[in-house]
Amino acid sequence: MLTKKINVTTPKYQMIAVDLASKIADQKLLIGDKIHARSTLANQYGVSPETARKAVSVLVDLEIVQAKHGSGFFVSSIDKAREFVTQYKDVLSLRELKGELIESIQKQKEELNYFSDILDTFVEQTKRFDTINTLHPVSFTLTEEATHLEMTVGDMNLWQNTSATLVAIKHCDELIVSPGPYTKISVDDTIYFVGNESTLQRVQNFFYPQSG
């Protein structure tokens, strides 16, 4: 069972802005240092000039760098760069946590679906077992209080009266399999039959009507 990985993505311009701010926060770029032109940043990060422009605009809006008309962009605040990097890491952690939660929820849903399939299979197999189980012979021993004793199988019409299919009769020490219509049933005989779940009660009522 495979779980799809949730990826938390960040816009490229924002990643570039964070990278530049990190360099300023680490003082790899100092106050007054000039930020590369858009075309240079675009080549450096492998993005379009427009993406590079948006990255620098973020730093300008946060007052990390300052635009000087005709001269370019220059580092103006290390503290604000550090603040921006810290906030970004906090937000990224929250986004990653959200992704992990979504992934966990999806995994739980897949597991619930998996167990639901197992349950459906179990129920279906149980139904099949119940159906097959009706073919297992049921035994029933006749006492002297039973009716229809010394009657033949054909005369008593067992199947017509009970829906039981007679498969064998144990008479004394002899087991008569598939007894014919002229086979008699006597006291202490054990009959073996198959049928549905209500067949046993019908057979009991047939031989012992007073108990029903």
UniProtKB/TrEMBL annotation:
Positions of the RCK C-terminal domain: 124-209
Keywords associated with the record: DNA-binding, Transcription, Transcription regulation
InterPro entries found in the cross-reference section: Bact_HTH_transcr_reg, RCK_C, RCK_C_sf, Tscrpt_reg_HTH_GntR, WH-like_DNA-bd_sf, WH_DNA-bd_sf
Molecular function (Gene Ontology), one example: monoatomic cation transmembrane transporter activity
Domain HTH gntR-type: 10-78
Keyword Membrane in annotation: no
Any one biological process term the GO annotation gives: potassium ion transport
Name of this protein: Transcriptional regulator, GntR family
Native species: Melissococcus plutonius (strain ATCC 35311 / DSM 29964 / CIP 104052 / LMG 20360 / NCIMB 702443)
